[in-house]
Amino acid sequence: MTQKNQTLGEFIIENQSNFKYSSGELSRLINSIRLAGKVVNYEVNKAGLVDIIGAAGDTNIQGEDQQKLDVYANEKFIQAMKNRNIVCGIASEEEDDFITINSQDEQHQNKYVVLIDPLDGSSNIDVNVSVGTIFSVYRRVTPIGTPVQLEDFLQPGNRQVAAGYIIYGTSTMLVYTTGHGVNGFTLNPATGSYYLSHPEMKFPETGRIYSVNEGNYTHFPLGVKKYIKYCQEEGGDRPYTSRYIGSLVSDIHRNMIKGGIYMYPKSSKLADGKLRLLYECNPMAFIIEQAGGKASNGFGRIMDMNPTELHQRVPFFGGSKKMVEKAEEFMELHS
Ligand code: P6P
């Protein structure tokens, strides 16, 4: 039972029973992400004022310039999840390889792994556009007490125990699921607390917004081109509206509230698309499905894909169920 305006802390305590097998670690993990989100939010909100914008002079494994705030956010989330005897490993978009975290307490062995995109859409920071943090949580599959292995991270999305995002927008929100629906909490900067502002979020079954970088149109597969044209033609509730922020969290958050589809297809330039399966597509897919939507790679369920590498990319179509199904129809027809 959710009561509007509960604090996140009250909500976690009240819903502790939902976290099967967990003696409070999962709650404490969500709590540590909440705290790190507040610290990152403070820096994101004043990024224009301090020399924290601009490339840190380094590039991540994706070959993308690391904005200083990317590096800062990565450090803060890793710090928040270490030394709490909850997590045995972390994989991050900003880290080439996964990080092993040893338990500090012989009597207790950490059993969760976290995959995180600490600041997604960071190229938007210096133009003052919303950015987000995305996280995904699994129970490890290798024996507890041994060092974490790559296979602990290469699990299909259907084995996630929690996933969520923080959107640093006109307000800062934490939206997450533990497999029992999706709830959104808004940060009140005056008190530093997150309040349950969007209980039991639901993806509208259909919508009139399509989100895709149409600059890549000529490079898309024929089925994607046909679906985009379908969205633009007169007929029924069409033409739809095109809305694309270039920040995955922001585009999906808006579409979850208003109804819509977000697409990052493969193209002749990017054979597997751009988005990463493990710390972008799977967590967003868990949220989308828990809210009643659909998340696909164009031909099958994103969360059923068996990962092969930490930073692998996949095509992504996520949002209102009927819109994703229609897009899949076009891709099936023209594959
Ligand atoms: P493009 C940000 O880099 C990101 O990973 C997502 O947040 C966003 O939706 C997408 O890439 C934007 O990519 O190629 O359209 O600029």
Automatic annotation (TrEMBL):
Its EC number is 3.1.3.11. One of its GO terms (biological process) is fructose metabolic process. Substrate binds at residues 120-123, 213, 244, 274. Residues 7-199 form the Fructose-1-6-bisphosphatase class I N-terminal domain. It catalyses: beta-D-fructose 1,6-bisphosphate + H2O = beta-D-fructose 6-phosphate + phosphate. It is found in: Cytoplasm. One of its GO terms (cellular component) is cytosol. Keywords: Carbohydrate metabolism, Cytoplasm, Hydrolase, Magnesium, Metal-binding. Mg(2+) 2 binds at residues 117, 120, 280. Binds 2 magnesium ions per subunit. Residues 204-331 form the Fructose-1-6-bisphosphatase class 1 C-terminal domain. Pathway: Carbohydrate biosynthesis; Calvin cycle. Mg(2+) 1 binds at residues 93, 117, 119. InterPro entries: FBPase_C_dom, FBPase_class-1, FBPase_N, FBPtase, Fructose_bisphosphatase_AS. Pfam families: FBPase, FBPase_C. The keyword Metal-binding applies. One of its GO terms (molecular function) is magnesium ion binding. Homotetramer. This is Fructose-1,6-bisphosphatase class 1.
